[in-house]
Design brief:
Number of helices: 2
Shape: globular
Strand order of the largest sheet: 1-2
Structural class: alpha+beta
Order of helices and strands: EEHH
Radius of gyration: 10 Å
Length: 43
């Protein structure tokens, strides 16, 4: 279990935040992170 989330797109860091921020605040996420999470959280 981690305390931080690093989300990368095309080899660049686009998100660096706590797991609570990453999974709990959709408005603060990058468009690519939103797209990724919308696909994996459907299941």
């Amino acid at each position: 279990v981690s305390h931080r989330v690093i989300f990368m797109d095309a080899g660049k860091i686009v998100e660096d935040c706590t797991r609570e921020e990453f999974f709990g605040n959709a408005d603060a996420r990058s468009p690519r992170a939103k797209e990724f999470l919308s696909k994996i959280l459907q299941h």
